[in-house]
Design goal:
6-stranded mixed beta sheet; alpha/beta
Length: about 230
């Protein structure tokens, strides 16, 4: 059986990413620049010679759109199994979904939790702080958030392994990928540099996830160089 590896990709750049809004469970499509960046990623993955056996994404439109572009570039559309999994959605920001990120992360949360910089918080404190300021009561407390994210990725990895292993494409979201890495590596807070279209590599063996690479932009960069030429 081939080794099970998840190529966990942050979706392409969206309208809300571009204007600095917190996206969460709300959704906007990729911009033209975002589409081009994911096309570059697909080209880079194709040039690498990697073979992929299965594909997964969250059920958010931006993740589905991203996966569609990648599968097109790899010539794998309708060629490999692909399904959505809502467990690997982004964090829900509740009443702040769609609000300006600066208002939430640099204003409300630091004021309520009495810190100068939200990046000094653990992911647990940040998640629970968002719950405190969410007047809609939609945001997920840390215990719920970490359980659904870890459960989602473990289920995906197990499914890949049960079907012979190999490389799987997985499109998810910035805070969700940070949470996954945090949980797997046992670190409370990482502030990872996860650019749109970057790849975080996770292996699965003996029922255990292991992070092998974080926020790798090299595939996209190879594709961008080929786009330019």
């Amino acid at each position: 059986m081939a080794k099970t590896r998840l190529f966990v990709i942050r979706h392409g750049r969206t309208m809300f990413n571009t204007i600095g809004r917190a996206q969460g469970w709300s959704d906007t499509p990729l911009t033209a620049e975002g589409e081009r960046g994911i096309q570059a990623l697909g080209i880079g993955l194709r040039e690498s010679g990697l073979e992929f056996t299965r594909a997964y994404s969250s059920d958010s439109g931006r993740a589905i759109q991203t996966m569609g572009i990648i599968l097109d570039e790899l010539g794998l559309k309708d060629q490999i199994p692909y399904r959505f999994d809502k467990r690997i959605r982004e964090w829900c920001f509740g009443s702040f979904d769609g609000a300006y990120g600066g208002e939430l992360f640099h204003g409300v949360v630091p004021r309520v939790l009495d810190v100068e910089d939200y990046k000094t918080l653990t992911l647990e404190d940040l998640a629970n702080g968002i719950c405190q300021v969410d007047t809609a009561n939609w945001a997920e407390p840390w215990e719920v958030l970490k359980s659904r994210i870890l459960e989602g990725f473990e289920a995906i990895a197990k499914e890949v392994e049960e079907n012979g292993g190999g490389n799987a494409l997985v499109v998810s979201h910035s805070w969700t990928i940070q949470t996954l890495v945090c949980l797997v590596e046992g670190k409370p807070n990482l502030n990872l540099p996860l650019s749109n279209g970057s790849v975080t590599l996770v292996e699965y063996e003996d029922g255990k996830l292991t992070v092998k690479g974080i926020g790798d932009s090299s595939y996209r960069e190879v594709g961008e160089s080929l786009q330019e030429s």
